[in-house]
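Comment on this:
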Amino acid sequence: MKPKSHIVNLPVYQPGKPIEDVKRELGLDEVIKLASNENPYGASPKVKEAILAELENISIYPDGGAVELTADLASSLGVNANQIIFGCGSDEIIALLARAFFVPGDETIMADQTFSVYKSNADIEGAISIEVPLVDGTHDLDAMLDKINDHTKMIWVCNPNNPTGTILSEQVLTAFLEKVPGDVLVVLDEAYCEYVTDLSYPNSIQYLDKYPNVVILRTFSKIYGLASLRIGYGVGQPEVIKLINQVREPFNTTRVAQAAAKAALKDQEYIATCRAANAAGIVQLQGAFDRLGLEYFPAHGNFIMVDVRKPSGDIFEALLRKGIIIRGGHSKYPTYIRVTVGSQEQNKAFIHALEQVLEEEKAHA
């Protein structure tokens, strides 16, 4: 049995460590997961009602085109239904973009520390990833422009960027789009956009008419609290969405996920509450980091990347033993950890554990 030669050594995506594994491996009763940027407050109560109602139809195939959900979302965004495609999480849309547009030898540009799925899907399709170093944790758009050539097919811009949490302003992003050739797709990954409170952040939907080469990715996994149901979407010009749809598998989103997303979309009051709580949590964590003398990137999503001044793997393991799961292992930032903004109580527990770990590290130095 021989696989494609170029996929043999591809890394497998490593998600945040599950709570159940940590409890079992370390014999802990209480574990707090702040590793996967999930909403600590869960989904809207209206979502749970919609899920229970949809269970009556569990034996029936889902709507392969997600027609009702598409109509609701199109109305909410102010776009046409044929400008939207749904996927099993927005990461499936990333895979579909790679499948639809890349042929071996194409080049694709991205930051050198961003969502790893861009590169892995490019690798699968035989495209060449050009990784451009971040500057102060932020995309260097001028340097990315300099890398564009006749082989460039697609540029990925994660805004807010995962894992650093930084954003690009409307002014900066617009100037960038003005200079990108029209035959190069620009994918704006906005998985965390609903958390952003900074007024300089762009309303990217307004780009679609002026820049037909823009595709926007968003998800119901983060602020909407539907991570386990795997539903995200892309928005772009109809001709681009049609091409992506042509390589999409049928029934790629479930009845339950579609029903949940429709209910979640309608409860914007709940989303506003989550946004406000997240903003307060950012202040809580930043205050603790300031007190501890730790540097961190400006946080605009629901996570913060902070420099703990020790190998992140060591801090990850030490926190794990105290029942706190975070993320480390970022190759360009070996002493940084990424922590999800939890509830006030979760943040407090994390801060206490981090203080203990840093003191223990100091004692062993």
User: Anything to note?
Assistant: The radius of gyration is 21 Å. DSSP finds 13 helices and eleven strands in the chain.
